[in-house]
What does this fold into?
Amino acid sequence: MFQKYYQKIEELKKKDQYRTLVNVTGSVGAEVSIDGKKMILLSSNNYLGLAGSWEMKERTIAAVQAIGTGAGASRLISGNLGIHEELEKRIAKFKRSDSAILFSTGYMANTGVISSLAGEGDLILSDNLNHASIIDGCRLSGAEIVKYPHKDFDYLGNFLSRRRNESKFAGKVLIITDGLFSMDGDLAPLPQLQKIAKENNGLLLVDDAHATGVIGSRGKGTCEYFGLKKENIIQIGTFSKALGSLGGFVAGPEIIIEYLKNTARSFIYTTALPPSVCASSLAALDIIEKDPSIRENLLKNVEIVRNGLIDMGYNCLDSRTHIIPVLTGDAGLTMKFAKGLLEKGIFAPAIRPPTVPDGKSRIRVSLMSSHTEKHLEMIIDGFRSEGKRLGII
Ligand SMILES: Cc1ncc(COP(=O)(O)O)c(C=O)c1O
It folds into this structure.
């Protein structure tokens, strides 16, 4: 009865794609404990270090005391609390959108918004490096899905103009992209994508999971970074990464948000977020807006580490952000690299297929604002000695 599952596990082990969970203990910060040993954390999405901040903790605890631990029902039944609506208004304002809707996770925001806005007879154009939650949302929608080569807006424009000439296409057009790509650390060419979407009477959906709180002059994300007008854009995001909390959101025109409240299954058929989680997210937005030095420190750390890695001869692709891919290629070699780093007190797991394509395994360095100068020195030294030992540099 279980034979097929055993076989699959054996196959994964042979391909160096078998995964295990690492038990991380202690409070979340730039250092964590693994098997009782202190490690520099180089793989967290808690980019601004807010998940461990006293202000976030205090506001979260206060919400538990004032409101309780759970919402008790879905939003459309009796779980719609004042704090949900407060957070929706706040994130809409932060994203400079007309309106917003919360989801329990970023994953659920993607599956909900995509499967709601597109269906049979519609066309979705999706960057081939988009996150798994976007891919799953596309599959759920039942629309025609065309994956375009990474960031290739010429391909996209030509494809759509051919499609317009060839057939009488009457469906909706959705272009979907990560704003900041989670594994390559590069930014999507949003101005060009927005223009192409407009020429085709379509919408541009931008998943800013990794950009919210960090990218743009006030950390509002990639749309702020590129100075885009909001007209045909829908922004998706999560509170779980730089904002150190949990929960997804979609921000966009009133009519789209109203439509999602009525049709998005991952919004309708699930219990509303706990109020304490919304309080954490509100606290994070307050901190980000009042203290830009946290973001500035992260950018400074990025500059130091990226320059250090490139000077050593590493291939860090096109990244200029806090996500720095350090290409190692082979999955087995990448595992050895990650193990070597771990022995030096640096926790940066190997990223392997199917998360990234075959031959593109890597160590995904994700920097935090709270990494100190000492941490940065140890990181650079660790990559130098492991890279030399394994013949990568
Ligand atoms: C680009 C992208 N979108 C969405 C998500 C999902 O967000 P969450 O962790 O809040 O479910 C992730 C998480 O890894 C992501 O990288």
